[in-house]
Recover the amino acids of this structure.
């Protein structure tokens, strides 16, 4: 990370070298969910990158467009109106401050609780009925995509039970979260060769996350060699991240992907992320079906509740799994 002193407008927000046009992830794996070979393609992508793009996912364009236009409408409201939906602890509207441990980003967001296939009744944000309806329609649709992806993972891994992974997200008490992020253009840095950090580098702690954004780029992923590459935007597709919990369930066969967002100096980026997590009491340990003869778990056993608590005490960029890894003898 390049640490520079920026204009007052971006005070306290880390700056990054602006993305080089050549640093593009042209080899993003593409999984066609309608293809019979999808299960193999999903496993290959999870093993190699922990990240892939999903096409032919079955979500109606109208469902995606409606939630996007309602989100844009919400974020264009006066700040005082948006602040009435905050703070985002645990759920609601937030701006620049990410979590409670000092992480900052050039964004504003809605952090929302999901119960089954819609917003939780306990989560009264957003209050606008039209926006809420659009969110519920979208969440139900994207959750189905997450289930299909996890079923493809199970099939590709050779697990007999199709719902071995997806049931952790669809079962009673599952811990699902939904984020709507808005990254306004950071015009103060235009032409300076640096960009504001929209959302700092991190891995997702859950099983998987499913992301869609408008046509503005900004998402970057780190390859295994540490190189950061920009992901070409595709507003008609979904992008899937392997989370830390899924890395443990596969005993490291799938790797959670480190990613971040760089703010654009000219265009606004809006993204929608569904996070699929298990119930708090769910034991997170390698699935026995995936352990070879004599193969030992690389991780100490923990519950999702324990891991979530540890994750929320950490900074975004921390290696959260490190304290749960077994020391190699």
């Amino acid at each position: 990370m390049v640490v520079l002193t920026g204009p007052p407008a971006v005070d306290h927000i880390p700056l990054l070298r602006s993305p080089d046009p050549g640093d593009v992830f042209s080899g993003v794996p593409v999984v066609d969910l309608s293809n019979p070979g999808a299960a193999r393609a999903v496993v290959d992508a999870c093993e190699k990158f922990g990240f892939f793009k999903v096409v032919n996912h079955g979500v109606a364009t109208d469902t995606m467009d409606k939630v996007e236009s309602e989100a844009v409408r919400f974020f264009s409201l006066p700040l005082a109106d948006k602040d009435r939906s905050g703070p985002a602890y645990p759920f609601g509207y937030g701006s620049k401050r990410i979590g409670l441990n000092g992480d900052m980003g050039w964004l504003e967001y809605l952090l929302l609780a999901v119960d089954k296939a819609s917003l939780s009744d306990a989560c009264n944000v957003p209050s606008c009925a039209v926006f809420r309806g659009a969110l519920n329609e979208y969440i139900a649709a994207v959750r189905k995509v997450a289930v299909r992806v996890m079923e493809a993972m199970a099939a590709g891994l050779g697990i007999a039970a199709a719902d071995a992974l997806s049931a952790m997200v669809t079962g009673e008490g599952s811990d699902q979260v939904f984020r709507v992020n808005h990254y306004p253009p950071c015009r103060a840095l235009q032409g300076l060769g640096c960009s504001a950090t929209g959302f700092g580098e991190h891995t997702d702690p859950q099983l998987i996350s499913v992301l869609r954004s408008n046509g503005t780029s900004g998402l970057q992923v780190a390859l295994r060699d540490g190189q950061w590459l920009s992901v070409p935007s595709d507003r008609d597709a979904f992008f899937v991240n392997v989370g830390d919990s899924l890395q443990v369930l596969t005993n490291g066969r799938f790797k959670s992907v480190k990613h971040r967002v760089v703010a654009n100096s000219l265009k606004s980026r809006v993204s929608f992320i569904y996070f699929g997590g298990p119930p708090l009491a769910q034991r997170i340990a390698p699935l026995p079906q995936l352990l070879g003869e004599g193969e030992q778990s690389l991780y100490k056993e923990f519950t999702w509740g324990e891991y979530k608590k540890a994750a929320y005490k950490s900074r975004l960029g921390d290696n959260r799994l490190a304290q749960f890894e077994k020391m190699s003898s």
